[in-house]
Amino acid sequence: MPSSTSTRPRAAAASTLRGRTVFRAVAALLTLGIFLVDVLTTLEGAVAVLYVVAVLLVARTGRRADIVITAVAGIGLTLIAYLDSHGVNHVGAQTFRALVSLAAIIITALLALQYQGAMQRLRGQATLLDLSHDMIFVRDRSGVITFWNRTAAQVYGWSAEDAIGRVADVLLSTRYPQAREAVEATLLQLGSWEGTLEQRTRDGAWRVLESRWVIQRDGLGRATGVMETHTDVTERRRAEDAALRAQAELAHATRVATLGELTASLAHEVNQPLMAVVTNGEAGLRWLHRDPPDLHEVEAAITRTVREARRASEIVKRVRAFLAKRSTPREPLDASLLIEDAVRLVQHELNREAVQLHVAVTADLPAVHGDAVQLQQVLVNLLINASQAMAGQANARQLVVEAQPGAPGEVAISIADSGPGIDSAHLDTLFQPFFTTKPDGMGMGLAICRSTAEAHGGRLSVESVPGHGATFRLVLATHPTGARA
Q1: What is Dmax (Cα atoms) for the chain?
Q2: Cβ atoms within 10 A of the Cβ of 450, count?
Q3: Are residues 356 and 335 in the same domain?
Q4: Into how many domains does the chain fold?
Q5: Are 150 and 134 contacting, i.e. CB atoms less than 8 angstroms apart?
Q6: 391 lies in the same domain as 477
Q7: Mind listing the pLDDT tens digit for each residue in 152-182?
Q8: Residues 162 and 180 in one domain
């Protein structure tokens, strides 16, 4: 049994066919009536000019042939009626009226054909808009919908009959990325607007859309309406958000895994201020037990104790921040302090591997903008990788960390080791997920490092000559970027 959806186009086609038949029949009867009046009566007026009415009637059928046939019939019947009444040799007022009638028929037919051609072009354009995979609708300056394509009906759930005449923002509950007035001001100033917005469908679901607006203008340049084109990116946005969440989870797991390699270094670093606390406490007690007590020395010992205790507290805070699942806010960061904190975390690892560390930071470097924890993770990973790359070699193990200005608006941090270098066959795949040259490696450290750098508007690259070590170059922006963290 055919559905109502499939029978609706058939019913519309049958109605259109019936309408054309009616217009043709009425035009034919009118043409015959005008001819009989022109021939059988003695009216002095330009009766034949009424044939233009028949031409206008058949123009409603949308068929060029109907216009041509009716116009030719009107011209022929006008000539027949004139010759029948006045003959060939008569020239007078009747001749002028006949010429006026012929001119009116011809001009009307030409205008009808021109109008029909324009309408066919418009219908063709409307058909293309209707077949588009994007949601397209046209609204006037007050926001009332005047055109609604088929994809819009399918995605939003409202048919063209339901949508046309409604205010778009009210119908779709549109959410804008900024104030609606600012969007409209940009549209009027530039003639177009692009952005991402959210709209609600008939069933209540919200869709994320990439939207493009264009102003429609009349012959005088006045804005008459706005055409909106929307591309549904809801699923893509969900996939991007899921990927970002997965990356954050993986980065957190990597930080936890990195902590295992830093345990000895952390124990050594925390132990130093704790031992200093004990030493200063014992010294303070000795000065207090003197006869008489040396209160000045006691105060100095207590001051040193408080300072060392705070130092231990800061170490614990830094470790907790490094392991935090949520990233810290992006803010201006001192590159030299960023390097210093990362080096402090891996210092024991470098000492154990007998790595000679050289740090050179150009004075007065501009601050980089980013997440301190994430950038610290990048540097820690690169320093540990460099230390492990030199493990076991007999010659001196040199690790050089440099920070200097890069291109305008950038700071470049390089980490160079004196290890065996990287095989040229691995350079193109080094930053790909799950690629590793370590027997027990996950292959995610460098992939996360590069994605973190790119999320900060920077980049991470490597240069290596086998046998002469490797140099990783981290470039960071000195201003906020629009990348999503």
Answers
A1: 153
A2: 20
A3: yes
A4: 4
A5: no
A6: yes
A7: 888 899 998 889 899 999 999 999 988 888 8
A8: yes
Residue with tokens 């060029």: 64
Judgement on whether residues 27 and 53 belong to the same structural domain of the protein? yes
**What single-letter DSSP state applies at residue 179?**
-
Boundary residue ending a domain (74, 105, 129): 129
pLDDT per position as a tens digit, 293-308: 888 888 988 988 888 7
Quick: pLDDT tens for 360-405: 999 889 999 888 877 887 888 888 888 888 887 778 889 999 999 9
Q: Give the pLDDT confidence score for residue 201 in this predicted structure.
A: 92
pLDDT over 90 at 17, yes or no? no
245, 159 contact by CB (below 8 A): no
Task: Please enumerate, as own/partner, the contacts of 252-259 that have beta carbons within 8 Å and a separation of 24 or more.
Answer: 252/323, 252/325, 254/377, 254/381, 254/442, 254/444, 254/445, 254/448, 255/322, 255/323, 255/377, 256/323, 257/442, 258/377, 258/380, 258/381, 258/384, 259/319, 259/322, 259/323
345, 262 contact by CB (below 8 A)? yes
**Angstrom distance (rounded) from CA 466 to CA 470:** 8
User: What does the pLDDT look like over 74-98, one tens digit per residue?
Assistant: 888 888 887 777 676 666 677 777 7
Q: How confident is the model at residue 322 (pLDDT cuts 50, 70, 90)?
A: low
Distances from the Cα of 80 to the Cαs of 39, 74, 186, 385, in angstroms?
9, 10, 64, 103
- What percentage of the chain exceeds 70 in pLDDT? 78
Map tokens 């200097």 to a residue: 404
| Whole-number pLDDT of residue 90 | 67
**pLDDT (0 to 100) of residue 485:** 39
57 close to 94: Cβ distance less than 8 angstroms: no
Instruction: Please compute the mean of the pLDDT values over residues 255-272 and round it to a whole number.
Output: 60
Asked if omega into 292 is within 30° of 0 (cis), the reply is yes
From 232, 267, 286, the end of a domain falls on: 232
**In angstroms, what CA-CA distances link 420 with 99, 169, 413, 414, 469?**
101, 64, 21, 17, 5
Q: Region 90-109: what's the mean pLDDT?
A: 80
Q: What is the CATH number of the domain that holds 197?
A: 3.30.450.20
In one letter, which amino acid is 29? L
Query: Based on the domain organization, do 115 and 253 belong to the same domain?
Result: no
Range of 141's domain?
A: 133-232
Q: What's the CATH number where 439 sits?
A: 3.30.565.10
Using CA atoms, how far residue 208 sits from 99, 129, 151, 211, 286, in Å, is 64, 21, 15, 9, 71
Q: 342 and 413 share a domain?
A: yes
Secondary structure of residue 436 in the 3-state scheme: coil
